[in-house]
Structures are given as C-alpha cells and as structure tokens.
Amino acid sequence: MIFFWILFWIAVLWLGGLGFLRYVWFPRDPDHTKTEQDPRAIRAPVYGQVAYIKRVENGNIVTNKLGEQIPIKDITKEDWPTDQPDGNGWLIGIAMTALDVHYQYAPMPGEVGTINHFSCRHNLPMFDFWEYVRITYFRKAVQLFARKYTFENERQTMWINGSDVKVALVLIADKFIDKITTFVGSDLEVRGGSKLSFIGRGSQVDLVICGCPNLKIKVAEGQAVYGPLTVLAEL
C-alpha cells in the first residue's frame, strides 16, 4: 500500500510539473511595452543564450574553423536583399531552451517586410541529451554553429526594415516544436520590443543584420540574453 501511494504521488508531481511547464511556464509573457525606441540599438529578439556571432561577407558566413564558405542563404533560404548589394553584415544565433520565454520580439522599430515559411520532411534535434542539460540547466555554452539542423530544419524568415538597418529573424524549429504562431503581417509598422511570434518549446533564432560595417557588438558567445532588455549591438 505504501508503495502504491509513493507511485501515486510521483505520478501526480510529474503530471503537475508537465502541466505547469505547458500552461504556465512556456506561455509566460513579460511586459516590454516600455522598451526604449532607439532605431540605432538592435535588441535581442528572444530570451536565450548567444550561440555564435559571425561576420557575413559577400553573402557568405565567415568561418575559419570549417575552411569553407557557407552561403547565408543556407540559413535564410532566401536571396540577399537587392537593396543591400554588397552582401555584407552579421549573423547572431540565439539558442532557446525549455526554460526561456518563447515569444519573439521586434529588435528595433520598423516595418515588417516579407514573412516566408520553409518546411522540411523531418526536423533534426538541436542538442544531444548532455548538451541539452548543459545549456538548459547549467546555462553553459554549447557550440552550435554549422550543425546540420541549422541548414535543414523547418524555419520562418521574417524581414524588418528599420530607419537605419535591415534585419531578418530566422526561427529555426527544433525536433519537438509544436508550431510557430505569427502575430504580425507584411507592411505592418512595429515598435521595438513588440511581440512578433511565438514558438513552442525549444528552438533557435538567428538574427541577420545587413550592412553596418561599424556595428558595435555588445554581447559575447555564451552570454544569456533577455529579449528586448538586452542590446545585442549598436549602429
């Protein structure tokens, strides 16, 4: 009988924990309505951890370790914007875990451009088990650049045109993603810090920044970021 009650309470706690994560923790929604509207400050579009910061030159991601050119199109699934002819810029990848806020926010005030969804036959996982434990519970850096899922998983690419810069948010789905819910449409004016979308469970958001040769990066790889509360870079 005692064994039965032990199992009973373990099951209750387990189900209660799952319910808390799904209906309370995942959809929590911090208030960012007072975000400063500075068009020259590029804020984090999500809560999470900076996975990598890479330079983009002539439409290719600059990397010394791999010894090869990686077209930025492999991530965005779109051609480089025609109004940014030099093909230069920055790529900042931010990993989201089950413990992070799951809304995405406008990194600066501007106008929403195109929003395109790219499906795939089978999403690959972002982490193995120990990497997931390391980044989620110990908040330690995990090297995620150029993992296979970065190029192959389902994603949504959303462009935003600011007064001084053009950026793209690339929402890359993890293996266990439920769906991406988008709250805005093309040609809509958005305030910096306003909600753009919501993605269930873990995922990754890559921020592509066009141009900006004098961009000042204000974060480092492995650093935790807190959505619009964190300035990623300044023009």
Keywords:
235 residues, alpha+beta, 10-stranded antiparallel beta sheet, 3-stranded antiparallel beta sheet, 17% helix
Can you offer a commentary on this structure?
- This protein is of the alpha+beta class and 235 residues long.
- 17% of the residues lie in helices and 34% in strands.
- It has four helices and 16 strands.
- Strands 2, 3, 4, 5, 7, 8, 9, 11, 13 and 15 form a ten-stranded antiparallel β-sheet that branches.
- A hairpin with a 4-residue loop joins strand 8 (155-161) and strand 9.
- The model has no long low-confidence stretch (mean pLDDT 85).
Ordered list of secondary-structure elements with their pairings:
Elements: H1 2-25, E1 41-43, E2 47-57, E3 60-61, E4 70-71, H2 73-76, E5 89-96, E6 103-105, E7 110-118, H3 129-136, H4 148-152, E8 155-161, E9 166-173, E10 180-182, E11 189-190, E12 195-199, E13 203-210, E14 216-217, E15 224-226, E16 231-234
Antiparallel strand pairs: 1-16, 2-3, 2-5, 2-15, 3-4, 5-13, 6-12, 7-8, 7-11, 8-9, 9-13, 10-12, 14-16
